[in-house]
Amino acid sequence: MTTAQSTTFLKDSVSFPFCKGCGHHHYVHNLDNALSSLQLDPKKVCIVSDIGCIGILDALFVSPHTFHTTHGRSTAFATGVELADGILNDSKLKTVVVIGDGGATIGLLHIVNAALLNVDVTVLVANNMLYGMTGGQNSGFSPLEFITPTTPEGNIVPPMDICAMIKSCGAEYVTSISATDKNLTTVIADAIAHPGFALVEIVELCTEFAIGKNKIDGKIIQTMADQHNAATLPTVFKRKEFCEEYKSKVLGRPSKIKNDSLTQKYISSLRGTRRWVIAGTAGEKVQLSSYLLMRAGILCGLHATQKNDNPVTQGSGFSLSEVVVSSDEIYYTGIDVPDVVIISSAEGLKEVTVNGTLSRSNKQTVIIMEDSLPEIVTTAKLYRVPLRSLCTPQRATTSAVAAFIAHELMIPLEAMIDSIQMHVGEKVLLYQDDVRKILPLLS
Amino acid sequence: MSTSIKIRTGNQMIAEGALHAGCQFFAGYPITPASGIYKSMIEELPKHNGVAISSPDEISALAYCIGASARGAKAMTATSGPGWSLMIETVQYALMTELPVVIAVVQRLGPSTGGATQGAQGDILLTEYCTSGAYTIPIFAPSTAEECFEVTSLAMFWAEELRTPVIVLSDKEIGMMSEDVDFDSLVSSPINYRKQPDSGSANGFKTYDFKTSSDVPLFSPVGGEHKTTITGSAHDKKGSLQKNSPETIEVLRHLQTKITSRAEEMAFIKTDDDPNADILIISFGITARTAREAVKRAREQGMRVRLVNVISLFPIPEILLKKAARGVHTVFVAEENLTGQYRSVIQHLFTDTTVIGINSLGTMITPNDILESIIL
Fold this sequence. Notes:
The complex is a heterodimer.
Chain A: H1 24-37, E1 45-49, E2 65-68, H2 74-89, E3 94-100, H3 101-106, H4 108-117, E4 121-127, E5 130-131, E6 137-138, H5 162-167, E7 173-178, H6 184-193, E8 198-203, H7 218-228, H8 242-249, E9 273-281, H9 286-299, E10 303-309, E11 318-326, E12 340-343, H10 346-354, H11 357-360, E13 366-370, E14 381-385, H12 387-391, H13 396-408, H14 413-424, H15 428-438
Helix pairs in contact in A: 1-6, 2-4, 2-8, 9-13, 9-14, 13-14, 13-15
Chain B: E1 5-9, H1 10-20, E2 25-28, H2 35-44, E3 51-54, H3 58-70, E4 75-79, H4 81-97, E5 101-107, H5 124-128, E6 139-140, H6 145-162, E7 165-171, H7 172-176, E8 178-182, E9 229-231, H8 246-260, H9 263-266, E10 269-272, E11 279-283, H10 285-300, E12 305-310, E13 312-314, H11 318-324, E14 330-335, H12 341-346, E15 354-359, H13 367-374
Parallel strand pairs in B: 2-3, 2-4, 4-5, 5-7, 6-7, 11-12, 11-14, 14-15
Antiparallel strand pairs in B: 1-8, 6-13, 10-12
Helix pairs in contact in B: 1-2, 1-6, 3-4, 10-13
């Protein structure tokens, strides 16, 4: 049993729950001494603890906030605390992560990310080279030849050097030290005081599981700490803490979204619903043409929906949109029988064949298809138009939509032209020209 | 005539709803079909003096949110099935530690990676019953872009009110489809914040204190004047780790009671009624609006049909659903999954009525699918 000192963040006369000789005793005392030496207001300290023997130290502290989390995730929770504190509250809360080598193994990415961000979190890794709470199994930190219940022949996988790894993430305050080192309090205090991410690996002995079958003692522990601490800490820290960076570069910046409210300007004679399928090639403004159609409908006081489809790689292969325009509220957003199908390329034709649009088309359907494409068998009314050569591939589907609107007269052509103009400005003249060329071919 | 019609996706309207409700913190990781929420929050939240940040995975995204929530921020994240799977550990933690958060889950086809751009409503049971102990997690499901705004605002309200994780369960069709949204007619819930203890009452504060089981403990943030003791392990009202003490069991019961005692207040359905209906169709999300089309067509054929669009999937709005089934001989439950997940948890409510599922896998249910089922 160990009794805590008087100027302390620990509970009075607290009994430590650790095994006799366990390095965690040194860890807790030195952390407490470090917090006291910094003269921090305990309400401005949050100890975020992980799972494992070291993780239960939260119960020993009486005055700071404690946040006992899940295995390996402590650094991620701590990052969230600091982001909210540093950016939204600015209360200079000091957040200290208490984690073992097991937690650091399963939660390595969270430590990596906190280091990359350079958020003001201090991670104190208690490295006793094994999972103590569950029976001494090997961790990612176990040395070569280390004997544990799960490496009975000796560990054949080299241990990770958390310091080297985290330094490579741009962390500036990274060091390793033996739990019995007389400088431990100072090192922990410096790490907590550092205004950015800091990591201290505290190398310890697990008296229950590490000794006996392994030749390990204080001298070997010291050598390990020295090896991981090969480079000395920098004298000048160059990186800006993340929250400061965020506040100066991101927070409060004006929105890029323009006011895009629409008001009815035109009157449509459409009563009921028109379902359009527009298919072509990625990069040829297929989905844009659908958006412009949808907006034209809304400018006439109609309701509209638009769904897009493309291969997962997005920038290649087909591009397809389904647009429903209706004088009534749109309940069903799918398309059983399309009213209008526009196909501007071979990729588009392939997709409307594969997805069943063509087979679901009937004599009520109008298809406007690029005329260089192969013959198709359909009962739909088919117009073959040289869209790509008349309008260029980039304007093909938009001009085809506008031409059909001009042909059908349900939506005024002015609404579609207005919608196009909002997007392309005076280049709308090119589209009006296209419409004049396509329209005679739809009769 | 409205002068503020905008073209918006459901995902964008979830972001709008969160901003309206005073969301201050968002952490995200990209995943189709939920990425639109992440993008909108990154674009808009900093303008509202909030934090929107990229995380290296979904585990971190939710852990960042819970850390921020513990510091006092109204927090939210968004994901789809594969990301949700990774978040389950931390959702349980949020429930146990009574830290509010809203998670938008935009469903796609599963299992596993499934189909990133294919719609589905297959995560009903995976979202609701993700905790050890099957604690009730409030889940709200939108069926239009406007409802995305409405239910996100509602989810944020209940998360704060109950200090618990709340899910907005959307789907690919609702999330990624654009439609006309009338911003003048948007519906929202009151903007609230978790109740806090009085300043100066630091002595005697207990992190998880309550008098009666249904009470919600007063919240004080880490870094605040009251010392907080947060833990995901079984604990007493102070937050001290305990093994099966009577007070610990009381705390565990309270986690459920504080939700179920408010079930009637959370109950929310939208009914397209026919008072003389002999058929009831129950649906939600994208399928609910398809069902509205089917009902319209069925009525044109002279059928007497009532439709219920369930917005608050959980806690199950039992009283409202039972009432909706009065006078009907058959209840149909339409949902885009193989086994009838929602039907499986509500069919016990309809003791004197035949319950039939209308299901589909990999494709949207069509109005004709529903019509063919109800014309027996």
